[in-house]
Design a protein that fits this description.
The complex is a heterodimer of chains A (320) and B (330). Chain A is of the alpha/beta class and 320 residues long. Chain A folds into 2 domains: 134 residues, Response regulator (Rossmann fold); 131 residues, Response regulator (Rossmann fold). Helix content of chain A is 49%, strand content 18%. Chain A has a 6-stranded parallel beta sheet with strand order 2-1-3-4-5-11, sandwiched between helices. A 4-stranded parallel beta sheet of chain A has the order 7-6-8-9, with helices on both faces. A two-stranded antiparallel sheet of chain A has the order 10-12. The N and C termini of chain A lie far apart (56 Å). About 3% of the residues of chain A have low confidence. Chain B is mainly alpha-helical and 330 residues long. Chain B is 77% helix and 1% strand. A two-stranded antiparallel sheet of chain B has the order 1-2. In chain B, α3 packs antiparallel against α11, α5 runs antiparallel to α6 and α9 packs across α11. The chains are: A alpha/beta (320), B mainly alpha (330). At the A-B interface, α1, α2, β7, α7 and α8 of A face α3, α11 and α13 of B.
């Protein structure tokens, strides 16, 4: 009896959960037929940057809510799941798709499916080889952030010194391009060289560990250049604990609220702002235009260098 | 080893047999201790920077999070269970604790939250498993997904910062020169050792892992023991999450990824059998240290991250193989 009861309770819990989830989906997806529909396929809603981009999209989509419906899906960083979601959009005959690719290789195929179905597809945030086949791209050029970051590091170090590069999750587009950008600049400065390189998986905890271990190698490090702010903060925490933050320059990318705080107090010397709001707005704007049949063009949102001199300007962006 | 299981199966509560089982476990423990020593000597030969006090302290501190989780997972695996939810639980605890570690709450509040959330999730796991609704693998797999979702929901998928200085002491402070996470790791180890070796519950845990049916027949309240075991693992995962959050001064819904697998690896390297009935806390701690030494040594040598993963995988397999062979020959 007891057994039965708990099964019933659990089942009814699950059913009610599923129902309430469906209901919420319905509110977004359902509605009158007269409205045009835009499907938005997000790569990973648990990525901090993407959450800011979505905030901007939802802010922007309100402006068009009288004529448009916006359906958001989350691939949870799973390329196959994203493929299914896009296929659903296509079979539903949405009027435009906003596509934030999980996998920059599979992306080419997804774009061509939308093209075959005659549905405009706007790629946002992550670019890839073959992105020109899409209707338009709204975002930045990943490699640029690595270039800007390293250029500023080189400037602050007068073009010489030993560099340690902290990679993000290996194989991730941002890791590949940012490190590539870093190395391009280093190769132009004969007095700079990479003495250490390792991955801290974009994570602060791993950044602390890797930096602690690097400090034990006895290698002379003049700057730690990290693929993102979280790892850079991890490196800063380990350096502070070892009393070596004065000797080693630390640089990150992303200009997250936490990162900006570290720039403000002078511990993080360099970070690079990627405009989540700008990308989100541009994507909605392009998709709405494309769905109406207007002609659209790529919108490249530039990265911006952040140092102590201009950090307040960026802190203000988050406090709006 | 299989003969050993047979013994327990035939006679689950015979003290002599259990004792025999334990003494064999001691051999197993020393086997893996030799592997750890061998790795240390190897790293010491390969890189002169390995054997310094700072570096050794670093290794233990770096492994303390996984170590604490692994100590909680060990009794579960001894009962023939598994816990896949610990990594996600770390994330859930991390964001909840962080939100209570901001501003003016006294230090006790975030600590209490870590305990409450950890135990609550563990109790849910334990209850589902003890009632026989689902196998441990499935129940905790579900929890792994759900707890990660809950962490995202609670935090909006964003890190929570601005933690109080007093809270940061848990992960960053030292007492008499020893990092606090290492002290927590040690205390948890001692407490769990006592539970497994000096209490009735401990005896029951081994008996259930040896043969659950026999344990029931012998009058052990198996359900109660199982619920306690999972709740205890939840508690420790909660403490690990709290320590990590304090260490990185940020509550992160993305933290703890794959921690459950590292913890299980540490436990299994340490000689705990996935078939139940066998395992020691000493072994698990050494297992965690082996993973820590390998991570640290490869970083010190500047081995590329692709190779690091391959080497780590090979060492996990080799360590267990060497250990099981040693057992066989004795």
């Amino acid at each position: 009896m007891k057994f039965h009861k708990s099964i019933v309770i659990i089942l009814s819990l699950i059913v009610s959960l599923v129902l309430s989830a469906c209901n919420r989906g319905e509110q977004v997806a359902g509605g009158s037929d007269s409205k045009k529909v835009i499907g938005i396929a997000e790569a990973n809603m648990s990525n901090e940057f993407i959450t800011y981009m979505i905030d901007a999209m939802k802010e922007e989509d309100k402006k068009h809510s009288s004529d448009f419906e916006f359906v958001y899906t989350d691939a949870q960083n799973d390329s196959a799941k994203q493929m299914n979601q896009i296929e659903n959009f296509i079979s539903r005959k949405v009027d435009a798709i906003i596509f934030n690719p999980v996998d920059t290789v599979a992306a080419v195929d997804i774009v061509s499916r939308a093209n075959e179905a005659g549905i405009p597809i706007i790629v946002v945030n992550r670019t890839f080889d073959g992105v020109d086949k899409a209707t338009a791209y709204a975002g930045s050029q990943s490699i640029e952030s690595g270039l800007i970051q390293m250029e500023e590091v080189a400037k602050q170090m007068s073009g010489k010194g030993n560099i340690a590069i902290m990679d993000g999750e290996m194989g991730h587009e941002a890791q590949i391009k940012r490190t590539e950008g870093n190395k391009e600049i280093i190769s132009k400065n004969p007095d700079m060289k990479v003495v250490l390189q390792g991955t801290a998986k974009f994570s602060r905890a791993d950044g602390i560990k890797l930096m602690e271990n690097w400090l034990q190698t006895g290698e002379k490090i003049d700057a730690v250049v990290a693929n993102n702010d979280e790892m850079a903060i991890g490196a800063i925490m380990a350096l502070e604990e070892a009393g070596k933050l004065d000797e080693i320059l630390v640089a990150g990318i992303d200009a997250t609220p936490a990162g900006l705080e570290f720039v403000k107090n002078g511990k993080l010397k360099v970070t690079v702002f990627q405009n989540a709001t700008g990308q989100g707005k541009a994507a909605i704007d392009l998709a709405v235009k494309a769905a109406k049949g207007e002609k659209v063009e790529d919108q490249i949102i530039p990265y911006e260098l952040v140092t102590k001199d201009n950090v307040d300007e960026f802190i203000a962006k988050y406090n709006k | 080893m299989s003969a050993n299981i047979e013994n327990i199966k035939q006679n689950p509560l015979n003290d002599k047999q259990l004792l025999k089982g334990r003494s064999k476990n001691v051999m197993q423990k020393y086997g893996i201790l030799l592997v750890l020593l061998f790795l240390c000597v190897l790293m010491w030969i390969l890189t002169p920077h390995f054997l310094t006090v700072t570096n050794l302290v670093n290794i233990v501190r770096q492994m303390s999070t996984i170590g604490i989780i692994a100590i909680g997972v060990t009794p579960i695996i001894i009962t023939k269970g598994i816990d896949l939810s610990s990594g996600s639980l770390v994330a859930l605890v991390s964001v909840i604790v962080a939100s209570f570690a901001q501003g003016n709450y006294p230090l006790l509040i975030p600590i209490l939250m870590a305990v409450v959330v950890g135990v609550a999730v563990g109790l849910i796991n334990g209850t589902i498993i003890a009632k026989g609704l689902l196998a441990p693998f499935i129940a905790t797999l579900g929890m792994m997904t759900a707890a990660r979702g809950a962490a995202m929901l609670y935090s909006d998928g964003r890190p929570i910062g601005g933690l109080s200085e007093s809270f940061k002491f848990i992960g960053q402070g030292t007492i008499l020169g020893i990092p606090v996470p290492v002290i927590i790791f040690a205390l948890v180890g001692v407490a769990t050792w006592i539970i497994l070796n000096k209490t009735k519950i401990g005896k029951y845990i081994y008996a259930i892992g040896g043969n659950e049916h026999a344990a029931v027949t012998a009058g052990i309240n198996v359900k109660k023991v199982l619920i306690l075991v999972y709740a205890y693992a939840g508690l420790l995962a909660g403490l690990a999450g709290m320590t990590l959050t304090s260490r990185i001064a940020s509550g992160q819904p993305q933290s703890g990824l794959m921690f459950e697998l590292d913890a299980i690896a540490a436990t299994v390297i340490g000689g705990t059998s996935l078939f139940g009935g066998i395992g020691t806390i000493g072994g698990t701690i050494i297992g965690a240290l082996i993973i820590g030494v390998v991570n640290n040594g490869l970083d010190l040598m500047g081995v590329s991250s692709y190779w690091q993963q391959i080497v780590k995988g090979a060492i996990i397999v080799a360590a267990v193989y060497v250990d099981s062979r040693k057992n066989r020959t004795k």
